[in-house]
Amino acid sequence: MENKVVEEKEVDMIPLMTPYKMGNFELCHRVVLAPLSRQRSYGNIPQPHAILYYSQRTTKGGLLIGEATVISETGIGCNDISGLWTKEQVEAWKPIVNAVHAKGGIFFSQIWHAGRVSNKEVIEKAKSQIGVLKELYSRLAEIVHECPGQYYRYHGDWKSETQTVVSLLAFMHWLETGTLVLHSEVEEKLGLTPTEFGLDVDDYLIGICFMSNELPRYVVNQVTAGDYDCPRKVLKFLTDLHAAFRMLNLRNDFLRKKFDGMKYDLRKVEEVFYDVKIRGLAANGDSAGEKQA
Ligand SMILES: Cc1cc2nc3c(=O)[nH]c(=O)nc-3n(C[C@H](O)[C@H](O)[C@H](O)COP(=O)(O)O)c2cc1C
């Protein structure tokens, strides 16, 4: 009996074991389960085995921070991470959360968006198609090779597809590296050789303009998904791109029109950037985008 009193007193003395009021939550002690990604939410759906996992780690009045949980399909940073953007995922979480609550635990979800790296899987899928394009261009090059000096006679038949291909490659490249894909890099990716069947410079530049047209939509989607730093990065990139295009002496043709349209992309991204900033959502510390703006 005496021993028990002594033990209780000792427990009282350990600060880690003392209660803590965390906002509206009355924690019985200060030992917290740190967020630990388990990558066992197959297909991003939390699995029933997580009921046992989390309830084993629950104590009465103890705080648990759940594994990083993605809030959008665009935010997946690694395989089989848990998700919270579909009804099915929400339903799958419920028995897990209920099990924690049943033992008196307090459960927080660590919501997550992996930002630009999250496009990894999508990019891998797209990359696997580059080989198909390469094959098609090589066949086209063979056909054109049979008609020496006739490249520009038939060029109109494939130029708009090539411009789309350039825009997609440029977008993928930007997602991966944050930089502009070079003309020579596109040629290399598609297996084109300047002497035999090269990439027309206008097709490259128009493709880059197409890519620029996609960026405002991308920025809005990213912000909606919780990536508030995206507008700053895109704004910096687009500002540099616009400045580089301005140095070109363009003819009054389609490319010129596409370039003129780029300023509208820039304006739209700027608006999102300022909106995010005014709402206090932009990341602090890096003023690169502001300087450009
Ligand atoms: C396998 C593993 C998965 C993790 N997953 C997450 C996570 O989803 N979210 C997070 O914020 N931290 C995560 N962490 C970091 C742990 O929460 C962190 O290691 C823990 O808080 C201990 O902190 P310390 O490493 O600074 O001692 C993970 C760590 C490991 C080892």
UniProtKB/TrEMBL annotation:
SUPFAM superfamilies the UniProt entry points to: FMN-linked oxidoreductases, Translin
InterPro entries in the cross-refs: Aldolase_TIM, Translin, Translin_C, Translin_fam, Translin_sf
Protein's recorded name: NADH:flavin oxidoreductase/NADH oxidase N-terminal domain-containing protein
